[in-house]
Amino acid sequence: MSSRTSLASEVPRQRASRLSAILDLLATKGRLSVTDAAAHLDVSEATIRRDFAELSRRQLVTRNHGGVVATSVAYELPYRYRSSQHDSDLDRIAAAAVALVEPGAVVAMNGGTTTTTVARSLTAREDLSSRGLTLVTSALNIAVEAVLRPNVRCVCLGGIPRPESYEVTGPLATAGLSQLWIDVAVLGVNGLSAREGATCHHEDEAAVSRLMVERARDVIVVAAGSKLGERAFTEICDVAQITHIVTTADDKDPRVAELREIGTTVHCV
Prior knowledge:
Distance between the termini: 52 Å
Strand order of the largest sheet: 6-5-4-9-12-14-15
Helix content: 40-55%
Structural class: alpha/beta
Number of strands: 15
Shape: globular
Radius of gyration: 20 Å
């Protein structure tokens, strides 16, 4: 291969990595200026302007004076554009949640960054070689990864996917789920409090998660400490229906004490 051909093939790869890095920054900051992006990625401002134009063309960002903001139609950027970020909080939550699941169990999961991290840890367990695992999920990205695991039987619910979270919703999802019995439901939430219970932003997603709770023997809610005491738009379930909560909140946090008073086991990691 000539040096010219090698250089030509390298350019698209470099740009793809740069676009992903820009979206990672945007997912964290919410808005990004040309100057900040150029400094962070060590490229020219002209290059960043072209990248911003390309992301705008793909409808992944909205241009404003001097930079870009996350597109207004999304409450969070898709997980695939943030997967390069390492989050030790998520890793600790995943390790604790996975320890609560027995090999051979039927596990249901909704979508989100936290449950995606849990799913990756769960399906990679070495002790699945003897008894395996059945994973039922409403999240397309979780299903795509789980189906590659030889000791995991993956059941992907049907329905209409939401592009922000990859979660399928609607009557096809609930009809399929209503025929299944679940050992453990692992749920990510947008809010969790002793009074309002587990909540999320969208009713259609909540309806599927709510049914997972109804069909499950045990329910594990995985939530960062920042979610405790918060209330989102629509209810998933009462705290009394939750068997375990795995959170990064401090063990002495009064919000943790309120949850424990209801009878739920709270694991602070």
